[in-house]
Amino acid sequence: MSEAEEKAATGVGVLGHLARTVVFAPIGLFLLKAAWEFDSKETRGLHGALLELSQQPYGGFLLGAVAVGLIAYSLWCFVQARYRDV
Fold it and tell me: How many domains does the chain have?
């Protein structure tokens, strides 16, 4: 990879990891809440986390931003599959 390609891939990877954090952090918070309240019905998965995001003010914008970020994460995964030494 050239230096410019490496910088671009790093930026895409950072954006993708931030999007994953936005999606998976609420899942962890729901699990903590369920454990704290001893109520397993409070747990939510990926669908519940995205549904919660969509119900917030500017929910459509949030879902769109997360979608772009997750696409960036998938691109970063392809770059890793191609250039990473294992």
Answer: 1
